Amino acid sequence: xxKRLIRRKTLDSLGLLFVAFIMVSPVILFFLWMISLSxxxxxxxxxxxxxxxxxxxxxxxxxxVFEENxxxxxxxxxxxxxxxxxxLALVIGVPSGYGIARLKAEKSxxxxxxxxxxxxxxFLIPLFLLFQWTGLxxxxxxxxxxHLVVTVPIVVWIMIGYFETTPMELEEAAxxxxxxxWQVFRLVALPIAKPGIVVSFILALIFSWNNFVFGxxxxxxxxxxxxxxVYNMLSFEQVSWGPLAAAALIxxxxxxxxxMFAQKQIVAGLTAGAVKGG
Amino acid sequence: xxxxxxxxxxxxxxxxxxxxxxxxxxxxPFVLPALLVVSAVIVFPWVFTLWMSVNSWTLGQPxxxxxxANYVRLAQDMRFWxxxxxxxxxxxxxxxxxxxxxxxxxxxxDAKFPFRGLLRGVFVMPMMATPVAVALVWTMMFHPQLGVxxxxxxxxxxxxxxxxxxxxxxIPSLVLVETWQWTPLVMLIVxxxxxxxxxxxxxxxEIDGANAWQKFRYLTMPMIAPFLMIxxxxxxxxxxxxxxxxxxxxxxxxxxxSETINIYLYxxxxxxxxxxxxxxxxxxxxxxxxxxSFVLLMxxxxxxxxxxxxx
Lengths: 278, 311
What we know:
- The complex is a heterodimer.
- Helices cover 81% and strands 0% of the residues of chain A.
- Chain A is mostly helical.
- Chain A has 2 domains: 2-38; 61-277, MetI-like (MetI-like fold, Orthogonal Bundle), CATH 1.10.3720.10.
- By secondary structure, chain B is mostly helical.
- Chain B is 73% helix and 1% strand.
- Chain B has helices at residues 2-16, 28-52, 69-75, 78-110, 116-128, 131-141, 148-155, 170-195, 200-207, 212-240, 244-249, 261-271, 275-310, and strands at 55-56, 64-65.
- In chain B, strands 1-2 form a two-stranded antiparallel ribbon.
- Chains A and B meet through helix 1, helix 4, helix 5, helix 6 and helix 7 of A and helix 1, helix 2, helix 4, helix 5 and helix 6 of B.
- Chain A: This is Multiple sugar transport system permease protein.
């Protein structure tokens, strides 16, 4: 009797594993095919029926991307834009998330929500003109500034959620002992909120890195970020699939690695952020 | 630098405070920097957009005030109405399909089975992947002659499709990509809801002889309904503004068959440099999004209300 129950349970969980595998298979197939495309010569990429594992592996596709397309520069641009925009967002967003949570000013969070609802393009028209007039176009600053539209709301939003759940007692005790609000924030609230800061940092990083629309308007040949560079390869510079897929993989690999290593934090942050989002 | 100025402003604010109380410190200085940034990159552009929308202004030419003429032009612009229709279809499909598959995936990942954590990690990857990179690879997979998708279809006995290269299949094909990428978000939201579902009702339902479907329909569904609603709201807002995938794959084509409002807006402002008209379009687009969110929030409030009544 007990044996049969155990066998039944194993069967159930194997069945679930099978169904889950089918659900995940479009993801696996996509990334497998992406890798395959990036490692094949033109002849193999044009073959019918398609070849998944080529006989001759074309590592040279990756070299080509860097040699022919200035990809190192664009990679560095992406690092600078995303890095600066994310760090600035933490400096600005963490204290304000704290302030909003302590003020219980949920209404001001509506502003953040509206920022999420506004299409990115409607920020772009006026800021594009502003950057032209101030002569900032041609530097990375326009992109850094406009990426704050992405990063600041993420940080503020997640930090409000975190500071709302951290206990008030310690902070009250500290301020009775004569600590200024700034000291209370820095020495009491901030250390407790470290996990929240990590989550908001990771998510802001990812969404800023992936951003495309700001770049196509504001970047020129020298200031392109990676997503724009990849798009430009598609539209102008070449049509061979191998290097294109290699470039696509290079752009998205840092983000995918981050996703894998920080899966727990990301899932926690997204669920919290999303649930609060309603 | 920043910390010094904040401390100063904290001190200033302390002196000015009308009701001094040790237990209620002033938190506004914490919010101030973000408030400044928000007004610089969000509020200022809005005011400016509103102003430009009542002007006729193509970049490089003189600007003239024309009142609401841009809005009148918009109302008579067939291309705009078509893009509105494309946006509606695209959004509706991009909400419904991820909602269906995401809920299904959440129900599976809520159960216990080997390698669950690993598979869930893989399942979440598409929503984190760079949309342009994703679009690029899908474009190659959609290729009518060399694409792998037509090859896979041939196993099912389905003839080759033109996918994004045909005006009738382009929107469903784009939705396929959008669904592939954003189903994980719905899954995560619903999974969060399922985690909060208590076990006891299921036990008593089993004793009463309820089958799996009945348990899902009468127990799970009502309890995760608020989370489904959140998923609908977030998905609607994201799908209606979708840009990266559409622009990178079709630029609104073939012809204007996949031109959504957002793409038309981009073309108007940054391809034709018709800033005034583009601004008017941005304003109208924004109000459409606000209206949609408002309706969805109302539905949600209503749903909560009826929940309360039955309790």
